Amino acid sequence: MAKFGLQRVNSAFDGSAVARGRTGAQGIEINKVLKNTYLLLAATLLFSALMAGVAMALNVPPLGLIITLVGWFGLLFLTAKFRNSALGLVMVFAFTGFMGFTLGPIVNLYVNALGNGGQVVLTALGGTGIIFVALSAYVLTTRKDFSFIGGMLMVGILVAFVAGLAAAVFSLPALSLAVSAMFVLLMSGLILFQTSQIIHGGETNYIMATITLYITIYNLFISLLQIFGLFGDD
User: Rounded distance, CA 87 to CA 215, Å?
Assistant: First the structure.
C-alpha cells in the first residue's frame, strides 16, 4: 500500500515536471517568434521607407487603385503561400517594398498640396508610432488575451474596406473621412489582437505576424494622414 502511494506521488511529480518542461519550451518558442517578428518588422519598415523615398525622389505618379490592389493582394498571397520557407522572407520584402513605393506618391501629394504638408506627414508618422508602441506595450505588460475580438475585427475590416472603395470610386470626402476614422480604431484593435496571438501561442509564424503588424502600421499612417490632412488644409 505504501509502495503504491509512493509510486503515485512519483508519477505526479514526474508529470508536473514534464508539464513545466513543455511550458518552458513553449515560452522559449513564443519569445523566439516575438523577437523574430519585431526584428523582421523593423527591417521591413526601413526597407519600405527607403522605397517610399525612392518614389518621392523620382516623383512617381500614383499607381492607381487597380495596380495597387493587384500588387497588394498578389504579393500577400505569395507571402502566405511561402510563409514556411526562405522564399517567404523574399516575399515579405517584396510586399512591404511595393507598399512603400505606392506610399511615396501619396506623401508627395500631401507635401505639395498643403502649405503645412510636411508637418502633417510628420504628425501622422508620430501618431502612428505612439499608437503602435503604446498598444503593443500594453499587451506585453498585461499579457491580456484579445483573441475574442478577432471575429469583430474581420467583419469591421471587410465593411471598412468596401466603404473605402466606394469612397474612392465615387469621390465621397465625408465617407472617406469616416472610413479613415474606422480604420484607426480597427487597426488599433488588430495590434492588440495580433500581439496577443503571438504571446499566447496563437500565432507561431513570424512571417505572417510581421505582415499583419506591417499592414496595421501602414493603414494607421494612411488613415491618420487623411484625417490630419483634412483638418490641416487651409
Answer: 20
